[in-house]
Automatic annotation (TrEMBL):
Signal peptide: none annotated. Keywords: DNA-binding. InterPro entries: Cro/C1-type_HTH (IPR001387), Lambda_DNA-bd_dom_sf (IPR010982). This is Cro/Cl family transcriptional regulator. The keyword Ion transport does not apply. Coiled coil: none annotated. The keyword Cell membrane does not apply.
Amino acid sequence: MNNRLRELRETNGWSQGELAERLEVSRQTVNALETGKYDPSLPLAFRIARLFDARIEDIFFPDVT
């Protein structure tokens, strides 16, 4: 799954650690999300969308193969 998480985080001027604190996850989780190594659970995806005032589908989108 691809995502715009890094772009949104950088637009807000947040480090991975700062975003992790806001989402109540580890910095490693944020890194794994941004690099596509980990897909968020549905509750986490909702928290991310709420934090950025966006829809889940505007942040996360499937890989096109």
